[in-house]
């Protein structure tokens, strides 16, 4: 669907998500390696998973991150899930890691709010649609978006800095559009 206006909000928790991803993948790789060293019948695939996970962590942490490129741990978490499925003990932990890979993707996806003639759509894990009639006010000022709901709920978030200034909308134009939609 094409929206009249789309506002992208700033993400706050990417660093915490990255740290959790690194800790989970690294500790799993250590567990895989230790289990194989103590095993009477080592599994070559778990050795391979251990090496691949550690190499991926080194690549993401020390190369991609230092180059300033966006870092995603989704594939390393999926690889870790496959490693857990191959473990002799607690293979069900792989299901948890599959869920975490999906949630890591969701946590890093930018939060977008689309403004249309009929509704306001907040693009979260489960898309939330609100009619204009549920708002007292919608305001964008000084890089801060405020959604004031009639049920005394207030959503106030900072707008993400956009590298391309040519497509930025004028705050007054956006606020006039929202006032017009709230009146009708």
Structure, explained:
There is one protein chain. The protein has 184 residues and is of the alpha+beta class. The protein folds into two domains: 14-108; 110-183, Roll (PH-domain like), CATH 2.30.29. The chain contains five helices and seven strands; from the N terminus they run βααααββββββα. Strands 1-2-3-4 form a four-stranded antiparallel β-sheet, with no helix packed on it. The chain has a three-stranded antiparallel β-sheet with strand order 5-6-7. Strand 6 (144-149) and strand 7 (154-158) form a beta hairpin. The longest helix has 25 residues, at 14-38. The two termini are 22 Å apart.
Brief summary of the model shown:
The protein is an alpha+beta fold. The protein contains five helices and seven strands, in the order E-H-H-H-H-E-E-E-E-E-E-H.
